[in-house]
Amino acid sequence: MLSYQHGYHAGNAADVHKHLILLATILRMQQKSSAIHYFDTHAGKGMYDLRDAQAQKTGEYLHGVQLALNLRDDLATQPQWQHYFSALAAVNQGDDNTLEFYPGSPALVADLTREQDRHTVFELHPQEHQLLTAQESRQTGYVIYGDGLQGILQQLPPKTPRLLALIDPAYENKDEYAAVATTVSKIMQRCRHAVVLVWYPLLPAARHEELLQRLATELQQPILQSEFHYKAMSGERGMYGSGMLVINPPWQIEAEIETLLAPLLPAYAPIYGAPAQLQQTWLRKEND
Ligand code: SAM
């Protein structure tokens, strides 16, 4: 049974890390005109009301999107941040610094989809799916109710020459790490040029290491690993950071992510006693 609801976490530090990498990847890929099919295997409900009981209970967005918004004048010199802030502005009508809504990955991608592109998203939670479909398709892409890991495999190869997949599970049970590794291996066997983004949480139990090890040994493609450590690990529970793998990363994306997120790191010092850290490395290099 699915119990995870992203409304408790929307706009948190992990979403900022994940969504900036997503936008940076799309903008790089769109430097060529050939069509892209975007897949979002775990879509969520698409739009999040930050004034509702879920968001207010955790207040996580205050340490994510709100911190970024406070630094907008410094960040918005970069096109990826400009897209992020204009997506926020489109759904927040109040004064510049007050957030009411947060657009999830389907909305962020839909904003950038070009005439020639395709956009398919999957959601398995019945209520989240219903809320997603209640929005207009130009804000969400084409929505499919079902398991996104099986669903994406059924759609391969896409009709477009290029493919970008975001795989962003909640990892509610530990088997999901293995299921993600198996799905990514199959995607890369069928579409060896696919660009795939895989999000994972940094938790003391470190279950993501199984996922990393499997992908490093099973894939032939280059894999960039980007981790945003917003606080120190302590105790046995609690997420302390956000991880993202970029398989077949677009050219220069590593340096671009660094430039995008570096100005945000000091903002975590007053909250957690030390600046956040961005740690990036190659899990597999080209020609390894
Ligand atoms: N990608 C979204 C974003 O960035 O805005 C957030 C997604 S949230 C972390 C994960 C979502 O996956 C939840 O809404 C959950 O209901 C859904 N989910 C869980 N298992 C799934 C599955 N096997 N297939 C599709 N969706 C699933």
Automatic annotation (TrEMBL):
Keyword Nucleotide-binding in annotation: no
Database matches in InterPro entries: RlmJ, SAM-dependent_MTases_sf
EC number: 2.1.1.266
Pfam families to which the protein is assigned, alphabetical: RsmJ
Keyword terms of this UniProt record: Methyltransferase, RNA-binding, rRNA processing, S-adenosyl-L-methionine, Transferase
GO BP, sorted A to Z: rRNA base methylation
A single cellular component GO annotation: cytosol
One GO MF term: 23S rRNA (adenine(2030)-N(6))-methyltransferase activity
Binding site for S-adenosyl-L-methionine: 19, 42, 105, 123, 147-148, 168
Catalytic activity: adenosine(2030) in 23S rRNA + S-adenosyl-L-methionine = N(6)-methyladenosine(2030) in 23S rRNA + S-adenosyl-L-homocysteine + H(+)
Sites marked Interaction with substrate rRNA: 4
Active site (record annotation): 168 (proton acceptor)
Family, similarity comment: Belongs to the RlmJ family.
Function: Specifically methylates the adenine in position 2030 of 23S rRNA.
Subunit text: Monomer.
Protein name: Ribosomal RNA large subunit methyltransferase J
Organism: Aliidiomarina haloalkalitolerans
Gene: rlmJ
